[in-house]
Amino acid sequence: MALVDNIESNEVRVSEALPGDYFALLKPRVMSLVVFTAFVGMMIAPGEIHPLTAAIAILSIAVGGGASGALNMWYDADIDAVMSRTSKRPIPAGRITRGEALAFGLTLSAFAVMTLGILTNWAAGGLLAFTIFFYAVIYTMWLKRSTPQNIVIGGAAGAFPPMIGWAAVTGSVSLESVILFLIIFLWTPPHFWALALFKLRDYDMANVPMLPNVAGERHTKLQILIYSVVLASVAVLPWPLGFASPVYGAIAILLGANFLRHAWAVWRMEDGDATMVPAKKLFGFSLVYLAALFSVLLGEALVSRVMGW
After folding, report:
1. Average pLDDT score over residue span 272-284
2. Residue 296, exposed/middle/buried by CB under 10 A (0-12, 13-18, 19+)?
3. Residue 5 lies inside a defined structural domain of this protein
4. Which of 29, 148, 187, 227 is 20 to 30 A from 287, alpha carbon to alpha carbon?
5. 42 in a structural domain
6. Which residues cross the membrane (predicted)?
7. Number of domains, the chain
8. Beta carbons of 189 and 151 less than 8 angstroms apart
């Protein structure tokens, strides 16, 4: 009887997770941006890479990006549970435990880094390892909960993929890949601060020190405008530096002008505006902006390869 009681009192949890729940841990929308920008970096890079090696490299970068997302969800499960946009994620919803997410993230991290390092080169593998560490440890565990500049510094993690793609081909880092890094790095603050403006209450409830919560809306709007000006200027650089055409330059200027128009509308928005329409429009356009820039870069690279230029 005692043995039976002991067995009954120690319940064994059977995981209710479906494959889709583990896929959700990878943050597929973020992972798609990682894959796309890494592929652009790979295509722009000088030199040749075997198509199979390129496919394996992209897969490794995708898995590494997904592993970062899983580790982020493991650590931020308490925050995710109180924020409206994250409360239905697999861990706060109770479909996956934090331990399962941690094991999943660590396993994928090791697999991705080793595969990329062995089958391409260790410059790319090392950059991928550093990116995972930076996102999971420097940003998620340290910066996110300690400083309103979290997204500025932490944004570097999302900016590394084109540099990793470049390194997978060349085995090194160059000025061109640094410019690609800077475009994403400078894009991140206005993109996320626009989101933080209309999700202010969520971040406040989760006790995450996003800039609007700490410095106020007015200061946040000023920072958005400043970063937008710098971003629009840096995004044009691939043209004068010679790794993009005047067509890219013209498109970058037009897109940058529209980005600044949205940022200016946010700056002029009344503090405490309940609708936050300008901030929502900037957030939406920022996604189009980055995708369009990198799409043009990719298109020009593909045309150049086909035409043998």
Report:
1. 89
2. buried
3. no
4. 148
5. yes
6. 30-46, 52-75, 96-116, 122-143, 150-169, 175-198, 224-241, 247-267, 287-307
7. 2
8. yes
